[in-house]
Amino acid sequence: MRYAETGFNLEIDLTRRSIERVATDPVDTELYLGGLGTSAKILWDRVPPEVEPFSPENLLIFSTGLLCGTPAPGCNRTIVSTISPQTRLMAFSMMGGFWAPELKHAGYDKVILRGRSPGLVYLWINNDKVEIRDAAHLKGKGAIETEELIRRELNEPKAQVAAIGLAGENRVYFASIEQGRSSASRGGIGAVMGDKGVKAIAVRGKGDINMARPEEFMELCNGVLKYIKLREDNPIPGVMPILAGLGSPQEMKVHDEKWHTENFMWGNSRTRRKDFWNEEIEKNWRATLENARIRLISCYNCPMKCAATLSVPGFPTYMMKCFSKLTYTMAAYSDLDFGLKIAQMATDYGVDAFSTPQVMAFALELLEAGILTGKDFPDIPADSEGRFFWLLDRIVRREGIGDVLANGTYWAARQIGNGAEEFAHNNIKKHEQLPLKLSMLNPIYFLMYATGEKINITQIEGQFPQAPFLTMEEREEFVKDWVQVPDEKFKQYLLDWEPRGEKSMPFYPTVEMCCDIVDWQERMHYIDDALGMCSGLSSFPLKPPYHIHNYPKFISSGAGIEMDEARLTQAAKRYRTLVRAINISRGMRRADEKPPENHWKKRFPELEKELLDTYYKFKGWNDDGIPTKESLHELGLDYVSEEFLRRGILSDSDNGSAEGTSVTRQETKVEDPHHEG
Amino acid sequence: MKVEKRKKTIKTIRIDVDKCIGCMACEVICSAFHATPKYSSNNPARSRIRVIRDPIADIFVPVYAGEYAVAECAGRDKYTIDGKEYDECAFCRASCPSRDLFKEPDSGLPLKCDMCESDPPQEKPLCVQWCLNEALIYEVREEEAEEDGKIEDLETGLESLANKYGLNKIMDIVTRMSVSKKG
Ligand code: SF4
Ligand code: SF4
Ligand code: SF4
Question: Which among A155, A162, A312, B135 counts the fewest CB atoms within 10 Å?
């Protein structure tokens, strides 16, 4: 008997319209856990680097995590992975909500889509019955609207539906997949779904998920709930309110946006408005949010309330979470009322709330700079809000200039030329980043930004405080009950960390310490992504209920796989390396691993080089960021090094060649003359 | 002589729909608690509490499984409260042929909330324990039972049935019922 997982994947070939239920190998679960881990293995095995993102041979994998569908609180993530049209690397984007547990109850761990349907279809997974259904009548419909229509048409109010909007249908490079209160947004996975001709996947499941050692598992779950209560009642002192509690940032609850509005950048990640926040704005924005907000809501089996249902006059009710609250507002130099309105449309169109506002602000900067002209923007309104609505509409329809902008700032800039590249200034690996511009280099964040393959910083950071505490008392207080650390040394790092002087940034934490910290933070995120755990209860906040010490117990009592900290760490390292291997085979190299030039004002090139050199070594990668033969061997990934040798990515002397050999890489090099590769 | 009145324990779960966040944790824990062996599986479809959940319409109503109904009601009810239209039969607790709520998904056998009766007893029903948002609040109080009154009611009821069907028929049914209960 398989525990926690079902042991079956659903393989759907959209070209041949075939549906297969395929048993999986339990050994893969032991090696790669599930979720991201086993999906990475499938992509490595079945999608060679020659396969283009918009090719029928690209796979789009909807995966549950290993523990989804068990009673582990907050374990509800759907991990969607594919090859991204924007980064041309592996994309894996997570969504919360209710979809993954439903799929497990229907009897499947993953839905693997391949091929391409000639006409628009949707999938209806109703326990054992799986159908490919015509979706011609849903063409052009909003994502949220589609979910409702499908539930009604199936007469299944309890079906969970993940859908794309117009943006996905039109293969916008930053199109999302929406699912009620949640969305998988990064990397343009919605565009791949649209390319496959799949409008939505509806799921209903009524089967059991079994636990291997039930009593032990439940005790752990109860422990988590107890700890959540404790943390709710005792926010962490001395840190910003949004870092003090658990869950995703509680944006639907808070009214005080001084920190975000004065520290994050406005426009195309350009302007910091240090004196923006005042009483009157607070009053107005509070009224806006309170009038719009109907209810705070959660994901499956989670007591936190990170999202809300919102209703703005003149717009249909929708759901929002997190920082999408302010991204449109700030990109358009507008107010919250505008932000909540345009976010409704953007959600229904199905676009990423980080990239989209930046793409639009970028377009307006190009207009102002004369690189684009009035002819590119026929009949565009004069006011900033009107312009954003106008642009959003053009982008999701790929009309006129919208067709270019729909490829994201990186590719759009190259298409437009004429100096437009300078304006696509906030990207890493061709993907728009958080609108942040800071002064002093932060060595921890430098490493995370540079080497992160989740592409999104909020999905890599967490655990270790972002800044030192001012006093020793505060530090001692913090480390007192810091049970989450994998090793006691992390407490010392924090105790010694000063805001000023010798033991301050950028030279403290030392390079070695930074490696430890980044590795720990990344490891926890990768574990979450394989188990299906919400990072809001695990890798993202300070002092979360799930950590390296209780996770092995969850896995062994839940899934019946013998696990301890060392084994779990090794497994996470294994599939983390596999993700890198996929990207390396697609041409990613050291030259791609850098934060935006202007992310910090004060840069330290020598230190940065040392950081990257040391971290690569620490990770078992060579100077070009390629996993070495030895480190691959240690992880049982000899099949990767064999492939690397075959492709000339590694040579027998184990020195990585700096030249990528894949088709993608060559293309990238032509496209980007600035590569130092 | 004064008649001793019997004390009766009333267990109530107060449901505050305004506090419900629609997380389904109550469903998860109920189904796990009632699995055999205990906690060995999770399946909200087996839960004795179900949350009617329609976020866009702001409908979040936890409903507990009550009695099994052999036949559906002659008519259905449909409530509108504060402008929100609830589904037909939304608040009904019955495991009824008209819907698939409160039935074991495989056998179709009816499910009924037993307030998590167990030995040793639970401090609170499990769904209440797992609802950290306090949409479900457990209350226990003692009430004096009007036993005499009840017996009188029963007599009146039986008499009218006997008039209608004849006493023999009633006695037959009672015998059959007691046999089947023992079996
Ligand atoms: S912490 Fe928030 S985002 Fe995470 S599962 Fe719970 S409700 Fe969802
Ligand atoms: S656990 Fe509470 S908040 Fe969650 S669905 Fe059940 S009643 Fe609602
Ligand atoms: S009281 Fe117990 S049996 Fe009844 S619904 Fe709640 S958890 Fe289930």
Answer: A155
